[in-house]
Amino acid sequence: MSTFFLFLYALLITQRLLELRVAKRNSNWMESRGGTEVGQGHYKYIVLIHVGFLASLFGEVALAPTAGLPVWWALPFGLFLAAQVLRYWCIQSLGRFWNTRIYTIPNEPLVKKGPYRWLKHPNYLIVMTEMISFPLIFGAYTTALVWSGINLLFLKFVRIPIEEQALQIRAENQD
């Protein structure tokens, strides 16, 4: 297993743990302003998907019969780096409203700046890009396919509908 993989893998895990701290701080802030979490029951599955993805990635790279990066590794690496820039654009654009959970806060306008001017859920597109591109850097094709597929299905049939319902209820309560 390459030092490059271990470095990027550790960096990715550190990034996610720091984001969870930011999310917790933002949760506290939103709750102090009357915010409520919506759809708490599905969150454990998001955690399982991300932990499964990371475990699968580590296992696939560790058990790979051939060492070394694919010849075209720079392409998914560049895509992954671009996704990081976009991820932090989302986080910066939402500010204290950014979270890994779904919150609604009465009488707060929806954020319509940054990538949210064009897309309702840009962060989900970014996460999908990461789940495909990061494993491909190291030739972990099974992880890229299986876990991005699981994540896509979960987003489409669980997470986004819960978020859309919360936005709808919020909009109705503001009328």
TrEMBL record:
Q: Look up the domain of life of the source.
A: Bacteria
GO molecular function, a single term: protein C-terminal S-isoprenylcysteine carboxyl O-methyltransferase activity
Chief location = membrane
Q: From the Swiss-Prot or TrEMBL record, state where the protein is found.
A: Membrane
What positions belong to coiled-coil segments?
Answer: none
Q: Which Gene3D superfamilies match?
A: 1.20.120.1630
According to the record, the segments passing through the membrane are 43-64, 71-89, 132-155
One Pfam family this sequence matches:
ICMT
Q: Per its UniProt record, what InterPro entries does this chain match?
A: ICMT_MeTrfase, Metal_cation-efflux_comp
Task: Give the record's keywords alphabetically.
Answer: Membrane, Transmembrane, Transmembrane helix
Query: Is-annotated flag, keyword Glycoprotein?
Result: no
**Any one GO cellular component localisation term in the record:** membrane
Listed name of the protein: Isoprenylcysteine carboxyl methyltransferase
Source species of the chain:
Ammoniphilus oxalaticus
Q: Which taxonomic lineage does the organism of this UniProt entry have?
A: Bacteria, Bacillati, Bacillota, Bacilli, Bacillales
